[in-house]
Amino acid sequence: MHLKLTNIKHKLGRTLFNYNVEINHPITAIYGPSGAGKTTLINLIAGLEKPQSGSITFNKTTLFDDRKQISVPVNKRQLGIVFQDNYLFPHLNIHKNLCYSQQYLNGRQEYVSFNKIVSLLEIESLLNKKPSELSGGERQRVAIGRTLLSQPKLLLLDEPFSNLDRQKRKQIISYLLKINDEFKVPLLIISHDLEDVLKLTNQLLIVKNGCIQDSDNYLQIAEKGEVSEIISHKRFLNIIDAIYCKVSNTDGLASCKPSIDADNALLLTHKRKLQNNIINEGQRVRICIHPDDIALGREQISSISIQNQLKGLVTGIKETDEATFVFIDCGFKLISEITRSSIKKLKISIGDTVYCYIKSQAIEVVHIYE
Amino acid sequence: MSIEEIQIIWLTVKVALVSTVISLPISIGLGWILARKNIPGKHILEGIIALPLVAPPVVTGYLLLLLLGKNGFIGHWLNQINIELVFNFVALVIASVVVSLPLAVRTIRSAFELVDPVYEKASYTLGASKMNTFFRVTLPMALPGVVSGMILSFARSLGEFGATITLAGNISGQTQTISLMVYSNMQIPGNEMVVTRLVAVSLLISLGAIMASEYLKNKRKYLIK
Q1: B221 — contact with chain A (CB < 8 Å)?
Q2: What residue of B is the nearest CA neighbor of A76?
């Protein structure tokens, strides 16, 4: 996928928005504080708002260009939006909501079938119900299904986790990863919750004061330190895509490696299932570790219960008002959050070799790739 | 109840029904424009539509007579092709439409305003055109309000007096509706029973209409929720 916004200028009241960005990643998260211009950005992409000038192209198709006087109408852009509050049509039952777009497909290739969506999102039992009878999580699943059945070339999601509890958020994240995995539809997701965002993707687009401040891998953004909100965020996460390698039945542990030939492996408590999906050896999984679950030391410790003691090289240190973040290269990048006094005590500086101590229970599998 | 009374009740209901059917598309169109569009001169349009609601009905009838009478601005043109719009059934319907339209437009407009425009945006992103969105999302969501507006318009037509007597007259067997017959019989001593019967029928129909309108208003709130 290739989405490009060039010199997009848009005025809403007194606020001026200015967007210049290229998005190529299959899942990109738009992250930023409230009122930064995240929703305006996806409204402009979808055609729900018309910019004053600039151009928007998606996969070589010009969606908007003020100079060429091109402005493809919303219903012809083939971009799906899942709105913050679902907006399921209250007068239609779930089946009719899901099939709403069917008559507008005009022979377009259907990569998502009704039956597949219904089974993937586990909404079979809801088909005859009205939206008012559904819970928040169910409504969100139906809204995602309804949008996907319009066969969009890009799925835009505006705060898909708002109004959902932790368990439901986890579930929606898993569904979104499955959708991207199975249908190869690119996702552009707005969220102000960094933890949710990072479980979905490591590619961030930082929006602030109506402008794109940065667009990169989250680690690079954090390491650059230009965007202090990212790194100082309390719910920052280490996200690693790895291979679920070896399961030991005796100690109940499994090992994960970022790649088959990687030296360092992470040991974690073996879970047979993740949300009804069995984890098999050799499968690719996404795991996450909170930075404050990674302790640092100068040497390997034998008389300790912590199983993961990974050797790595310090590549960066960032201090914020609340904590100090140490960037370590262990064959894959990790960020550890420790106190300023620990840094001083251990005399850690860039280029040093350190050991990262991570409890196996602190490593969580958030997604199994198909 | 005499045959004449039954015929008058039927004529009144017929006029109310026909004028409601005619008002329906006009009220939906105007209600939608006022709810959704920012057109120049919107306040003037709002004023013109609401005028029959506040102006004395006789004044409305007089203005209609000036416009549609044999020597009126439009009437004299129509007269040349043998179309008469005064002192007949058509005049009854025109008076009813003009007087009841503001009620219908106001109710339907507020029904459209209650439909969150994001539902329409959701429909566009699912591939629907503006026209399809109107008929598949906006109108069905506003439907209880639209029906409620139509019932109010029907009820208003039933009781219409001032504009009707001015434009259509009070011709027995031709343009005499319940209200006009009540008025006429009030002038005749000994006809109190006729008046009472017609008043009772009129009240029953109106009460039924208002109750149906209130029921639909509550249903609309439920639907929007």
Answers
A1: no
A2: B127
